[in-house]
Amino acid sequence: MESDAELVRLTLAGRRDAFSVLVGRYERSVLAVARSVLRDGEPAQDAAQEAFMAAYTQLGSLRNGKLFGPWVMQIARRAAIRMARREKRLVHCASDDQLSSVTAKANPGETSESLLHAVTKLPDSERIVLMLRHFEGMDIREIAQVTARPVGTVTKQLSRAHHRLRKEFEQWND
Amino acid sequence: MERLTEEQLHQRLAQLEQSLGPRGSIVDRVVRELDQLQTPVRPARRKRIIMLLRQNKRVVGWAASLAVAAVILGSALVLPSIQGRSSAPSWWLQPPSVWAAEVTATLDAAKAEGFTCRGLMVWVSPDGKQHMSSTTMKSYYGRTGYRRDIFDGDVLRELQWYVPGHTRRLMVGCRNDTRSFTILEAGEMPQDESPIDRMKFMVGLMDKADRKLGEQAIEGRKCIGFEINASKYGDNPKTWLTRVWFDQRSKLPVRIEDIRPSSEKGLIETISVEDQFNYRPQLSEDVFLPRVPAGYVELHPDQLKRPEGAESLTDEEAKSRLGLRAVGLSSEQTQLQKIIGSIAEAAKVPYVVNWQALEKQGITRSAMTAIPQGATFEQSLEAVLHKLDESGSIGLAVRNGVAVISAVTPGPMTLPPGSDMLSPARE
Question: Which CATH architecture has domain B110-288?
Answer without folding.
Answer: Clam (2.50)
